[in-house]
Amino acid sequence: MKKVDYRKDFKELYLPKETPVIITVPEIQFIYVDGEGNPNKEGFRKDTELLYALSYGVRMAYKWPEPPFDWYEYTVFPLEGVWDLVDKEISHLDKDNLKYRIMIRQPDFLDQKLYDRIAAEASRKKKLQTERAVFGSFTEGLVCQILHKGSYDTEARSFEIMEEFCRSKGYERIEKTHREIYLSDPRKTKAEDLKTVLRFRIR
């Protein structure tokens, strides 16, 4: 049976080094949730729990009486977030002013029909607000990325390094929004040991 582990099969996307690189990200399908506000508060936590519940529902679909015929074993992908500001006139340091789209990548056997079935089960059994989640695809295209080690509050320096690297190579950042991929669980990891992939689109 086919087996997929993002740490081995998609190293370029999920395990960069602590120096900037430029890559092209293909179309990828996700389950995602849009929200606003401080990521340290209850709303963000519930959105994250919803994403994981649905993603593990996909992962365990082989146990159904009629499992997906093309299901294969895989490692659930890490949580990702695209971050922006609600009010562009307010500093990014005000976390209540943040706007996010958090998401988890899904295997290629998942389609809309299967997703709807999983969402209905999660709503019925776990009483989750699955209507907040959406199944869809995104294409990032050309990006610069780096592995950031340390607190989320120190990411600014990594972004400066990335932008300096892009300028030296003749590229420019095309939007202030950025993507974060969380390789560490902040509940179990010291802030100085957190590992996060930082990524933004370029041209």
Report on the architecture of this protein.
- With 203 residues, this protein is α+β, with helices and mostly antiparallel strands.
- It has a six-stranded antiparallel barrel. A two-stranded parallel sheet has the order 1-3.
- The longest helix has 18 residues, at 42-59.
- The protein has helices at 6-9, 11-14, 42-59, 112-126, 155-168, and strands spanning 3-4, 21-36, 73-74, 79-85, 98-105, 133-149, 178-182, 195-201.
- Helix 3 packs across helix 4.
Give average pLDDT, whole number: 94
The value of Rg in angstroms is 18 Å
SSE pattern: EHHEHEEEHEHEE
Low-confidence stretches: none
The structural class is alpha+beta
State the helicity in percent bands.
25-40%
Q: What does the secondary structure layout of this molecule look like, with pairings?
A:
Elements: E1 3-4, H1 6-9, H2 11-14, E2 21-36, H3 42-59, E3 73-74, E4 79-85, E5 98-105, H4 112-126, E6 133-149, H5 155-168, E7 178-182, E8 195-201
Parallel strand pairs: 1-3
Antiparallel strand pairs: 2-5, 2-6, 4-5, 4-7, 6-8, 7-8
List keywords for this structure.
203 residues, 6-stranded antiparallel β-barrel, 5 helices, globular
